[in-house]
Each structure stands twice: as C-alpha cells, then as structure tokens.
Specification:
six-stranded mixed barrel; 2 domains; alpha+beta; D-amino Acid Aminotransferase, Chain A, domain 2; D-amino Acid Aminotransferase, Chain A, domain 1; 24% helix
C-alpha cells in the first residue's frame, strides 16, 4: 500500500526474469512480472491494484473492440550507474494522456492514480529495468472502455492500466523513409493529436506497402493537398536545413511529442535557429537536391532519435549526408540526462 493511494498488491509467486536474455531484448516481446489496474465505475476511479501480468477477460460487446475507444502513452524508465531508477518527463505523459482522454470522450485519470500506480509498479519490478547500454524499461499506460454495450455512445465504465517491458534499440540503423502522397494519417478536426488506437490501426496498410518497396517508415503529409510534411510513422520528424532546425508545428493533426519538445528545447538552449512552421515537401526535396538538407531524423519515445538515411519521393531516393553531428549530439545529451550521467537543467528526470 502506498502512503496516499490504496493499492492492493498481488505478487507473482515466481518471477519470469531469469528466462530473459537482457543482452538481446526484442522491442515489445518480453513483459515484466506485474501490471497496474484501476477501474472507473460510477463516476470515479477505484479498485486500484497490482497483479501478475496476464491475459484479460472482457465482454464480446466491449466498445473498444467495436469502436476503438482507447488511448495510450509511451514512456521509459532508466537505470543509472548508481542503480537509481529514473523516469523521463512522466508528468508530460500524464498531461497528454488526459488531452487524449478529452478528445475520445473518456474520463481524466487523476495524477494520484497515474503517478502512484506507476511508482508502485516500477518499485515492485525494479529488477526489470535493464542496465545495459542502449536499454530501458518501456512503460505503456493506457485506457479503454469497459462497457458491455454495442450502442454507439460514449462508454460509462473504463479501465486504466500500466504494463512494462524491458527493451533495446527500436531501430538498429538509420532508416529509409518514403513521403506518402496518397494515404492520410490524420485530417484537420480529427484525432491526430491524440494517442488514440485507431490512428495507428489506420496507418498499418500504407506502411506495409512502403515496407514492401524497401522503406522502413512513411513520412505523412497533410490530408488536404499532400503538400506539407507532418509526422514520420510513429515519430515527429525534424530537418536541419542549412543552420536551422525546422519542424512542423504540433496541432490537431500532429502529436505534440515529448521527445520532439526535448530536442527543440536543447537546440534553443544551444543557441540554434529553430523554426516551428509548415514544411513543404518541395522545400525538403529541393534542400536535399542542393545539399542544404544536412540532417533529417525522427523523434519519439520508442526510438528517441531515429536518423534518416534516405528520403523517397515520387520514385526517386534522396540520400542524406552520413555526418549527423547535431542529431548525434542531441541523442548523447538526452541519454546522459536520462541515465543520470549529466546535469538535468530542465527538471526532466523523476527518481523512483
């Protein structure tokens, strides 16, 4: 039981941790021993508990299955050289979860439920936070409808859960991306800014087509004209054009990424020119042709920084320079802050 939130804890009798090869961890394949659950019933969050990780039992009429009323977050915990467990910007994930909840007609999760549930779960499974270089504990908080009703209306009951899994690198090498000019990820007035499950389900088919053509990810463009750059797959995308860091502004079609914000904060702190504005496909391609496009990279929780080696557009592949001085500096700086190896001037790290 925590000091502020009553949490019933049922421990797993025998840990699975001895079955895990922490030197070779596939992303999202191995899960820690326990999970946190809170139930929203009769207008309030209650029945907070931690139980062994395992399958759920839900009604065949659950609206999550039929209508996709679900949201999630992604965050990470790291182990410092001194053995401390460090979370990176958890309150930003908490606030963004509730922004998604508002858009999807779901109740806000209280800070107490989110943070106390997270803290107690991580404490219980501390040994699952890997200490090898390039590894972390991926944390997935999420909420979904718990009704038994297939009428189309906002649900009354919901479940909030947190599961965790040790992970290695999401991408092992720079990625090849293709600028998408037919399919759409999000449209103005839609749910693009929310981390709603349906956003990702609808992106799988176009991404599959791109992968069949030899690309790792898509670069999404605006739904109206396919003229402006938005996101790249599961990440925000940033460009170093000349001496200026350029990225599309977060809005109702673009997720307000926490890693993205961290990159922009560092760049401004270093005195770089930073522009959050519309970025046209034409501008990026012309910069690639002229050599002004020095770097392009994705920024997200799973990958942190994913360097882009190739941009495909209209049947032509544009190769980017291999010297990635800025993004390498960003990645090293963020890793050092997250691992407690350097000063945290922005107050990003939360110790468990």
């Amino acid at each position: 039981m925590t000091d502020t939130l009553a949490i019933d804890i049922q421990k797993r009798l025998t840990s699975k941790i001895n079955d895990v090869d922490f030197s070779n961890i596939q992303f999202g394949r191995v899960y820690s021993d326990h999970m946190f659950v809170s139930n929203f019933r009769n207008g309030k969050w209650d029945n907070n508990h931690i139980m062994p990780y395992g399958n759920l039992s839900i009604s065949p009429a659950n609206p999550t299955i039929h209508y996709g009323q679900s949201i999630f977050e992604g965050m990470k915990a790291y182990k410092s050289a001194e053995g401390e467990i460090l979370l990176f910007r958890p309150m930003d994930n908490f606030r963004r979860l509730n922004i998604s909840a508002e858009r999807m007609c779901m109740p806000h999760v209280s800070e107490e439920v989110f943070m106390e549930g997270l803290r107690e779960l991580i404490n219980l499974d501390r040994q699952w936070v890997p200490g090898n270089e390039g590894t972390s504990l991926y944390i997935r908080p999420y909420m979904f409808s718990a009704d038994e009703y297939i009428g189309i209306r906002p649900s009354d009951d919901f479940d909030f859960m947190i599961i965790t899994c040790p992970v290695g690198a999401y991408y092992s090498k720079p990625v090849r991306v293709k600028i998408e000019t037919h399919y759409t990820r999000a449209a103005a007035g839609g749910t693009g800014y929310a981390k709603a499950g349906g956003n990702y389900g609808g992106s799988l088919y176009p991404a599959k087509l791109a992968q069949e053509q030899g690309y790792d990810q898509l670069v999404w463009t605006d739904a109206k004209e396919h003229k402006y750059i938005e996101e790249s797959g599961t990440m925000n995308i940033l460009f170093l054009i000349g001496d200026t860091l350029v990225t599309a502004p977060a809005g109702d079609t673009i997720l307000n990424g926490i890693t993205r914000d961290s990159v922009l904060t560092l760049a401004r702190d270093w005195g770089m020119k930073v522009e959050e504005r519309k970025v046209s496909v034409e501008e990026v391609i012309e910069a690639a042709k002229s050599g002004e496009l020095k770097e392009a990279f994705g920024a997200g929780t799973a990958a942190t920084i994913a360097n882009i080696s190739t941009i495909g557009y209209d049947g032509v592949d544009y190769e980017l320079p291999e010297n990635r001085e800025f993004s390498s500096k960003v990645l090293t700086t963020l890793d050092n802050i997250k691992m407690g190896r350097s000063e945290d001037p922005f107050g990003w790290v939360h110790r468990i």
